[in-house]
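Hi there,

I know you've been waiting on this one. I reran it after we fixed the sequence typo, so this is the corrected version. Both the input and the resulting structure follow.
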Amino acid sequence: MGQALVEASPAARAVFEQADSLLAFPLSRLCFEGPEEDLNDTYNTQVAIFTTSVAALQALREAGYNRQPQFVAGHSLGEYSAYVAAGVLSFEDGLRLVRERGRLMKKAGDLNPGGMAAIMKVDDDKVVEICRQVAAEGSGSLQVANYNAPGQVVISGDNSAVERGIELAKAAGARRALKLAVSIAAHSVLMRVVADEFRQAIDATRLNLPEMPVVANITARPLATLETIREEMEGQLTSSVRWTDSVQWMVDQGVDTFIELGPKDVLTGLVRRVSKEITAHAVNSPTQIEAVLQSA
């Protein structure tokens, strides 16, 4: 994760070196060498993805890409690297806040164990109905965590509720209904137990007004004030990520090119499923940076 960027870009290398220093442990070694079990611990995963995403941003800028984005957005944790891109957060402050977010989400998972599942090829409204049915049956809390793309959502909640949701989704004709390999119920009410503590960390963090619009996960609209940004950061713990609506709204505003900055290319695939008319690039290697520069 991020190693190819670091080997080719002094700017990306500087981001990882700063992260290692601020966190007082070799995050770069964990990203490059593993072990995978430690990297997949949400306490580490969140700072790893955040750091790699900002490193990709700085490598792209260093390579000469200077076009001003019309909007920035991020999926769940990715919203924090979007804040850095928009000047809302410094990398240093963002890293500290993401580290605390990871710690608290892991704490919530220990206090309120839960899980998540991906549901494919079932109408969004039908998945919402399934979640309500599961709750009404007394199997536990269940809600849509992520609206990722048309026909692709993720549900989140108590383990028993997730299992029941999978059963009902399969009965409704889901092409796939698969429990994810996670130990927390992100974007669900089970995270509420740490919301107040995270709000304290948010309020202690310096924020700046965005230099470009940041499209929010909760509302799928730009965040206009510092208070709405703080509310987004806190509310995102327990609210659905409306990624499909966010992408569609940007397309409706005339956006025709998306550039994904991060360790993989999952969002590139998702935005293409939202709109067949757009161009999408992933940036996590020198070769991909060159491709973006040639297309600019």
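Quick highlight: The chain has a mean pLDDT of 97.

Best,
R. S.
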